[in-house]
Specification:
Blueprint lengths: L31 H9 L13 H10 L11 H14 L3 H14 L3 H12 L5 H26 L2 H19 L6
Helix pairs in contact: 1-3, 3-4, 3-5, 6-7
Length: about 180
């Protein structure tokens, strides 16, 4: 059973030929699909903002390593993903242009701020990773030196040192929750 709209602007009653567009009030936050697009940007690098270079395509063909960005078909969601990638990788000029693109797509300032707040959490903190790598090297090196002094065989000392330190580091590493 369908619903007919009548045109009361004229004297005769006939169905309304054109449906008027319903205006939507702007939402304050992001819906589930938009939040999903922001979360999808977590795995994309800043190279996903640009088309791949010839060298990158050649390396893909030669070595078969293809890391395609998570491009989305919906222009609104793709714009949101691109903005989140730009914010997560701290590229101010790209983030500013992507912000203008989001405004043109109809996102409110509050929605853009919500997406930026979520994307800032994706930033990589390389300094902490560097200190962890140095601490791991010192731990393995000192364990290797001690075992090598005791056994006198450097190859066995290296294997034993790795067998001791890798489980310690694996269990002591902080867990990341998504």
């Amino acid at each position: 059973m369908g619903v007919a709209f009548l045109d009361f602007s004229s004297s005769e009653r006939r169905p309304l030929a054109i449906h008027q567009q319903v205006l939507e009030l702007p939402r304050r936050g992001l819906d589930a699909r938009e939040r999903g697009a922001v979360l999808l940007a977590r795995t994309d690098g800043k190279e996903s903002l640009h088309s791949p270079s010839r060298l990158h395509r050649l390396l893909e063909i030669c070595f078969g390593l293809s890391r395609r960005p998570n491009t989305l078909a919906d222009p609104r969601l793709e714009g949101l993903r691109r903005y989140a990638v730009a914010v997560a990788h701290d590229t101010d000029e790209s983030a500013a242009s992507e912000r203008e693109h989001l405004i043109a797509l109809g996102f409110s300032d509050h929605q853009i701020l919500t997406a930026a707040t979520a994307a800032v959490r994706f930033r990589v903190k390389p300094v902490r990773g560097l200190w962890r790598a140095v601490a791991l090297a010192v731990l393995v090196g000192s364990t290797f030196w001690g075992i090598n002094q005791y056994l006198g065989d450097w190859l066995i000392a290296l294997v034993v040192a790795m067998a001791i330190t890798v489980p310690i580091v694996a269990f002591a590493a902080p867990r990341t929750s998504v």
